[in-house]
């Protein structure tokens, strides 16, 4: 790995091994694959951290040797050499730790980026997902905290390796000094690791429960904020706040219980490690009293006994608590990555991007009752519908769901026979609350695909001239996240211009002018019909100005209109 990467973040994401995931992947398998995904970073990290631990364990060995061979004999040359050797050892252990940790953190961040990309790709897959991936807050919690916990497991490939190397070296040195002491270490440490794994079971369960509760609270908070206007209109703010308050309290209780379990686990493992080290020191003291150890050897044993507390405690944390949290988070990450596609029967056909015909025949859903509707190429049709029926219709026309009965067809072929992503380019459904992304007005309208002439025509049709004139930097003005730097009416007109600039064969607009005044709405209605030209348009609205420019108006309740 080039040195600059160790000094600053690289401009591009660090590549890692593909993390294979299928329907049979278990949380343990996913965690192990994540740990093994960044060998270019974690192998040198493990080697350097082993060097660090070896350097740490050599400090009491060098000091004991200096006492026996230099101080006790009065040999100043050997003493000077021991001091130089000790200085070199400190330089080794210091720099190996710094660069080893940097390699390790790069590996963790690289795997975390890869996992987060996998989760985001699955949530944004144009083929959709079967069933619910959860509330937005739940998905966000999994993509953030759970991915972070899972990526932290990558540290197990480096830090515990160095800590285990320190334990083995300590056991080997003690074996040379006294086979009883060495045997205690080489037998006792595996037993401690086995106890750690068994004791981690309750912690894993509590970690999983706590993550689920926290994600549920986040999801309810996100839904509460997203639907605040609706809640205000219904007067249901108090009831919604009570629900969130309960979810938040449950999440807090779960967090406290999980933190308590982790504290008991870590404390118990540290106590076990301390008792083990105390027993080791007791045996060494008895050996020294019997004359089996010299003063220098006793100092070496005492120093190694004190030193080994760190690696043993680190194993309890790095190979215990981190592993337990990673397994719990891996299960939640898999709950998204293993979601099947919404409908595996979607074909590969790509709809013709020319003008086409939309047909709904006997379509039935929860809120639609046997709807028959034909839209001819170039026709502009107005549609009156309840909000629930409009939502069902939008889901059908965007390919997100299939009707309980009847068929939805484009150019004479059912939606299910088309490639879903290509179908959405032919039939563009713009919801009532169309969000803008953080960028300029030009970037939001063009989506980096439409040319300037098309953008200008779309802005004119959406009556955006006064918005552009008043904006500090014109088309290059930043709109902010979700378009928060614009008013509601300005956001709605920019979103309409974006839809028009894409020039889809069929454009479905749901109440595109609810946030503008009646004069502006009339101008948009006149220009909208002309802007669409020979392309089909479906306007789901009750606005008289918009319905007046339609070729015909259909009421989903069966009442005919002009």
TrEMBL record:
Q: Kindly list the places in or outside the cell where this protein is found, as annotated in its UniProt entry.
A: Cell membrane
Q: How the protein sits in the membrane?
A: Multi-pass membrane protein
The keyword ATP-binding is assigned to this record: yes
> Organism source for this protein?
Glycomyces mayteni
Question: Which InterPro entries is this protein grouped with?
Answer: ABC1_TM_dom, ABC1_TM_sf, ABC_transporter-like_ATP-bd, ABC_transporter-like_CS, P-loop_NTPase, Type_1_exporter
In which domain of life is the source organism classified? Bacteria
In its UniProt entry, what is this protein called? ABC transporter ATP-binding protein
Q: Which residues cross the membrane?
A: 164-196
Q: Name one GO molecular function term.
A: ATP binding
Which positions fall inside the ABC transporter domain? 353-562
Q: Which UniProt keywords apply?
A: ATP-binding, Membrane, Nucleotide-binding, Transmembrane, Transmembrane helix
Residues in ABC transmembrane type-1 domain copies:
45-322
**Pfam families, per database record:** ABC_membrane, ABC_tran
Q: What is its main location?
A: membrane
């Amino acid at each position: 790995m080039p040195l600059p990467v160790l000094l600053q973040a690289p401009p591009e994401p660090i590549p890692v091994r593909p993390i294979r995931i299928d329907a049979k992947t278990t949380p343990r398998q996913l965690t192990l694959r994540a740990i093994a995904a960044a060998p270019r970073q974690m192998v040198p990290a493990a080697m350097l951290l082993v060097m660090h631990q070896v350097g740490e364990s050599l400090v009491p060995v060098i000091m004991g040797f200096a006492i026996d061979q230099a101080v006790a004999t009065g040999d100043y040359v050997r003493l000077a050499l021991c001091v130089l050797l000790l200085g070199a050892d400190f330089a080794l252990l210091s720099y190996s730790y710094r660069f080893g940790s940097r390699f390790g953190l790069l590996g963790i961040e690289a795997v975390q980026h890869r996992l987060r990309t996998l989760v985001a790709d699955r949530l944004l897959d144009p083929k959709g997902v079967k069933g619910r991936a959860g509330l937005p807050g739940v998905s966000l919690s999994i993509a953030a905290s759970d991915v972070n916990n899972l990526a932290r497991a990558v540290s197990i490939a480096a830090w515990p390796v160095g800590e285990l190397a320190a334990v083995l070296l300590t056991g080997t040195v003690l074996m040379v000094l006294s086979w009883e002491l060495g045997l205690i270490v080489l037998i006792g440490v595996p037993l401690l690791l086995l106890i750690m794994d068994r004791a981690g079971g309750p912690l894993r369960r509590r970690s999983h429960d706590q993550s689920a509760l926290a994600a549920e609270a986040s999801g309810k908070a996100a839904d509460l904020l997203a639907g605040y206007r609706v809640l205000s209109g219904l007067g249901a703010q108090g009831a919604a706040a009570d629900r969130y308050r309960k979810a938040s309290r449950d999440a807090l209780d779960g967090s406290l219980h999980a933190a308590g379990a982790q504290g008991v686990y870590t404390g118990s493992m540290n106590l076990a490690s301390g008792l083990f080290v105390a027993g080791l020191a007791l045996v060494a003291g008895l050996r020294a009293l019997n004359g089996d150890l010299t003063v220098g050897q006793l100092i070496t044993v005492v120093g190694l006994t004190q030193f080994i507390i760190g690696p043993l405690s680190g194993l309890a944390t790095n190979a215990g608590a981190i592993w337990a949290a990673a397994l719990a988070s891996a299960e939640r990450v898999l709950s998204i990555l293993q979601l099947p596609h919404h409908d595996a029967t979607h074909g590969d056909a790509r709809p013709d991007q020319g003008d086409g015909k939309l047909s709904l025949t006997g379509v039935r859903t929860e809120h639609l009752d046997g709807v028959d509707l034909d839209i001819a190429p170039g026709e502009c049709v107005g549609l009156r519908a309840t909000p629930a029926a409009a939502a069902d219709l939008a889901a059908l026309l965007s390919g997100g769901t299939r009707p309980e009965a009847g068929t939805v067809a484009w150019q004479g072929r059912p939606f299910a026979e088309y490639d879903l992503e290509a179908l959405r380019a032919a039939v563009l459904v713009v919801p009532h609350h169309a969000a803008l992304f953080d960028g300029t007005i030009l970037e939001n309208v063009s989506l980096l695909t439409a040319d300037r002439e098309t953008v200008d025509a779309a802005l004119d049709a959406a009556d955006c001239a006064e918005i552009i004139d008043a904006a500090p930097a014109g088309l290059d003005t930043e709109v902010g996240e979700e378009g928060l730097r614009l008013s509601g009416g300005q956001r709605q007109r920019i979103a309409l211009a974006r839809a028009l600039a894409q020039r889809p064969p069929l454009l479905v607009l749901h109440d595109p002018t609810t946030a503008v005044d009646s004069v502006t709405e009339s101008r948009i209605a006149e220009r909208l019909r002309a802007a669409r030209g020979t392309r089909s348009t479906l306007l789901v609205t009750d606005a008289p100005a918009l319905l007046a420019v339609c070729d015909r108006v259909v009421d989903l309740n069966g009442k005919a209109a002009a």
